[in-house]
Amino acid sequence: MNYQEMKEVVALFNSLQGFENYAYSNEGVREVKRDEDGKIKEITFPCGYLKRTVANKYANSQTAWVLGYNENILGVFLVA
Prior knowledge:
Elements: H1 3-15, E1 31-34, E2 40-45, E3 48-57, E4 60-69, E5 72-79
Antiparallel strand pairs: 1-2, 2-3, 3-4, 4-5
């Protein structure tokens, strides 16, 4: 991971309210995956992942980041 990518990852972590309460906030990042637009879509940790998805609330959609491992979800962060 280069310096610019590290800055993006740290900014993302800081934008997720309550993320610092999870042990993942102190884990090293193994891999950063991006979508076709170059936006971060998934961050892989040694023990799990943080994935971007879309949460639908009625007719409006909202970006959500899902924190988990395997098929277990530990937390969901909604981004306004």
